[in-house]
Amino acid sequence: FGTVFIMAFDIATTIDVTDASNMSVLDSVTGSAGTTNLTTAQSNIAGLANNHAFVAGGSDDTFVSVNVSDTSNLSIADVFTDGTDLDRPQGVCVDDSIDIAWVTSDDDSKILTMDISDPANMSKTSVVTSLSGDKGLLIDTERSYVFGLGTNRIKAFTYNSSGVLTEQNFLNIDTYGHAINTSTQHIYGSNIAGDRIEVCDYSTITSLSEVESFTDATNLTEPTALGVDSTNNKLVVLCTDPGRLTVLDISDPTSLSVNGTLTNSDLTGNEYGGIVLDTKNQIAYCTIFNSKVVSFDYSGSGNPSLLDTLTLSGLAGYSTSIIGFSR
Question: Does 16 score more than 90 pLDDT?
């Protein structure tokens, strides 16, 4: 892809990554009318639908659509608020085939279903009570599954063509960052304190199971953000101590192994970072807490290599979320 979209505290930014070794800023946008309706400490960008990115504004209790049809001229399209059901939203996921998004409401343990067919006039269509402390969502659009990621638990839902969620099962598991491999039907979660990656099998949606708990105190010291490359059977992991990028072989989800690792000072402070993978070219783009975007080549069977570091001037704060698209 040629562009990545980053949510960094109260600013949304597009980055030109046509040349991964020479990244550059295209545009940035803050909250509309001088407000901070994009402010969030745990923003999770869902992806794109109808040329818009959708953002959970955790600090301002908002759900925001950002028009990215012109990546060099971003604009806020709509700001949705709801005093009843939207309290400190954290995670977002989207199924653009049915024009539906879901957003978590952390403080009152709910997931809202949102009609995004008109990104400039979004509306709530249904609500379910979910996990205590929802931080994020994952989606498998092929099978119409949504996963709520709460405190020490993953909860599985199915959804219909209107986006209405129906709970199926849950798994008690202590994880922080998450990534999904829809090809093999596995969810990967990072356990920071345990220096390990947990693997959940959801091939039977009514019976989630943990199939691997891979620990490596040397190469997985305090793992946080994850990115899955299902084409090349790799899991890219950001580790906070001492600032490390580790690539795992996930050919067998029940028996993970280290493919390569790289320690770099530009990765320091990634506990609030995010990862997006260009799986065709095997390039990882990582956001770092200290307002940096770092690109890595993770191809081959050895250690990843640094390609470029871009410091986002004026964007000090939480660079927590990143998505990529072709433009």
Answer: yes
**Which amino acid, 208?**
L
Please name the helix (run of DSSP H) or strand (run of DSSP E) that holds residue 129, with its range, or none: strand 123-129
Is the pLDDT at 22 greater than 90? The verdict is: yes
How far is Cα 198 from Cα 217, in angstroms, rounded to an integer? 14
CB half-sphere exposure, 103, CA atoms < 13 A = 34
Distance in Å from the first CA to the final CA of the chain:
7
Exposure pattern of 185-215 as b/e (b: 16+ CB <10 Å)? bbbbbbbbebbbbbbbbbeebeebeeebebe
pLDDT digits (tens, 9 = 90+) for 274-313: 889 999 999 999 887 767 889 999 998 889 999 999 988 6
Q: Helix, strand or coil for residue 119?
A: coil
Q: How far apart are CA 229 and CA 236, in angstroms?
A: 8
Alpha carbon 306 to chain centroid distance? 22
Pairing of strands 52-57, 283-288: unpaired
97 and 129 in contact (C-beta within 8 Å)? no
CA 81 – CA 70 distance, rounded (Å): 26
The residue among 209, 149, 211, 144 whose CA lies nearest residue 176 is 149
Q: pLDDT per residue over 124-151, tens digit each?
A: 999 998 766 667 899 999 999 999 987 7
Tens-digit pLDDT profile for residues 66-116: 999 999 999 999 999 888 888 878 789 999 999 999 998 877 788 999 999
Task: Classify 215 as helix, strand or coil.
Answer: strand
Q: Count the neighbouring beta carbons within 10 Å of the beta carbon of residue 115.
A: 17
CB 195 within 8 A of CB 208: no
Q: Give the residue from 130, 29, 41 showing the smallest Cα distance to 79.
A: 29
Contact 27, 14 (CB under 8 A): yes
